[in-house]
Amino acid sequence: xxxxxxxxxxxxxxxxxxxxxxxxxxxxxxxxxxxxxxxxxxxxxxxxxxxxxxxxxxxxxxxxxxxxxxxxxxxxxxxxxxxxxxxxxxxxxxxxxxxxxxxxxxxxxxxxxxxxxxxxxxxxxxxxxxxxxxxxxxxxxxxxxxxxxxxxxxxxxxxxxxxxxxxxxxxxxxxxxxxxxxxxxxxxxxxxxxxxxxxxxxxxxxxxxxxxxxxxxxxxxxxxxxxxxxxxxxxxxxxxxxxxxxxxxxxxxxxxxxxxxxxxxxxxxxxxxxxxxxxxxxxxxxxxxxxxxxxxxxxxxxxxxxxxxxxxxxxxxxxxxxxxxxxxxxxxxxxxxxxxxxxxxxxxxxxxxxxxxxxxxxxxxxxxxxxxxxxxxxxxxxxx
Amino acid sequence: xxxxxxxxxxxxxxxxxxxxxxxxxxxxxxxxxxxxxxxxxxxxxxxxxxxxxxxxxxxxxxxxxxxxxxxxxxxxxxxxxxxxxxxxxxxxxxxxxxxxxxxxxxxxxxxxxxxxxxxxxxxxxxxxxxxxxxxxxxxxxxxxxxxxxxxxxxxxxxxxxxxxxxxxxxxxxxxxxxxxxxxxxxxxxxxxxxxxxxxxxxxxxxxxxxxxxxxxxxxxxxxxxxxxxxxxxxxxxxxxxxxxxxxxxxxxxxxxxxxxxxxxxxxxxxxxxxxxxxxxxxxxxxxxxxxxxxxxxxxxxxxxxxxxxxxxxxxxxxxxxxxxxxxxxxxxxxxxxxxxxxx
Lengths: 384, 343
Hints:
The complex is a heterodimer of chains A (384) and B (343). By secondary structure, chain A is α+β, with helices and mostly antiparallel strands. Chain A has helices at 4-16, 20-24, 29-38, 47-63, 165-176, 196-223, 226-233, 235-245, 258-263, and strands at 78-82, 88-90, 93-95, 99-106, 112-119, 129-132, 142-153, 157-162, 283-292, 295-311, 315-322, 333-340, 343-346, 350-354, 357-363, 371-380. Chain A has 2 domains: 63-220, Roll (SH3 type barrels), CATH 2.30.30.110; 226-380, no CATH class. In chain A, a hairpin with a 2-residue loop joins β2 (88-90) and β3 (93-95). In chain B, strands 1-2-4-3 form a 4-stranded mixed β-sheet. Chain B is mainly α. In chain B, α2 (17-34) packs across α3.
């Protein structure tokens, strides 16, 4: 009999415990020590036993029937493993690379892909997940987390096999509407109170975030940092460019660099469309700034919604969504800060941003009565 | 290479002396680990006593391990993807033993499965037949949606309708009317778990659920239904708990908390102070600070405990009270020690 609780324990080990080779590696000694101090699964493990299990796992994998043929190039429908060298430590846990399903290529062609995360234990499937068999010949099922999607560079991905066309279609439909299950797909049971699947989803978000954030840093690095270009232009010229495009834009306090200038600007009240009166939860106005050939080409307000603000002892975590981010040839960048009157703004320690949704981690000190400011910045040499 | 050849190759690999040596090494250490989990050893032919482990008991574990690898070779073959296969494999084997402690008598299970399939096929208001993956399903509505195999947690949410049978015995349930009434009841319950959707219920899950409430191994030796109701704490993996493991988990969790979080927990739960006083002692401006901190610690704790045996609810079974008590006591003791030790 299957148990979700046991499946969750398995998932946690599979996703975030260091494999034997890492545990043995002196270069990882300090991180491994930290992990053993906080992990309920690894703490009691004796190293010799762990090595034996590792050897058995390696042999079992070698002896098992092949799960499929490598699919050649990466296209929509490819199942890919993230490359082994992407594994990384974060907050005492070792994030092992996961498998993903490529949903669609993103421009520039062949360079970036929108993916959904995969997991192999379907006991943990919940609404929004698609349980499917990777081969037309049946075989073990997997689940595609259609809600857990992000962009990765091609070089992160090792194609493994392809899913049948109806599976890819179903994933795309579930991304658009999490209830739109095809008749052949198993219907997952809705979440219950204290459901282990809720904890599994949190784990999967962390896994996705770990690799998506690394990918985003690389993508931004490759694309060139538009902020650096703007800084070299000088804040005065930048300010004049914005004012020329958008009358009534103003700055309550003096901005010291391009990042402050872009995040701390205010639109004139008459410039802001009336927000829907039935908006549930907290919302604010963000700015969209488009840079072409090093100059500001477009500035306009965008509506943003806050999903959660969680304050811990030393951290404030804010999540939300910027609505209707315009299409852009490059991946847009989110600039965020907490504004505290004339004092220097608080910049996030960590920004997770994908397809309009964001998660920001700020140091809690001084964040109490600060105001969140957001600007979506996109830069390209091409015309919009 | 076809499936048959793979099967043959896998078996050959398992029987090699090197593989056997490896399995024996693993079995030896697993046996020592299982001495802390007496509940799990009921899945083996004989219990593992304290002290040195005999060769026979190690051989039992090697056999069980071979069986586990053979039964799961296809699933395990998906491991090359990525991740931490060793940790996965070890935990999967422990789960395999845990599952075996809950298994029912196979022959009677098969017999009842066939009997239920025949009965449902002839019923006018029940749609039954094969579905994908060679499993049989039934439904009271059409069209109906396939569902995932039900889990331990799902089963534990479906009580047995004692009013549907004269007694909770194999004979009383193994009657056409009783089986049909129970199948209709079970279908409605499963549909309810899926938000009232028309669902295809796997026949296998219906029979498993029956097996949780009626003795499939023995027949007709008990009279009343009440006597037969399963005791939620009688499962072998629930009667015992590993005190050393529970204490280790408490130490692990204590190390995850910042000094300030630890202090809030001690002042709140060990010293019973109010939030205003806690705020004063921990440097928060007002009572909402420690209140929010306590809420966050609680969420962290729930996330930490949810996958661990004994210290969190398991389906409808509550956490083991003594295990949970030991966890709390150890955690608070650790935090108090931390508080008195200058950093």
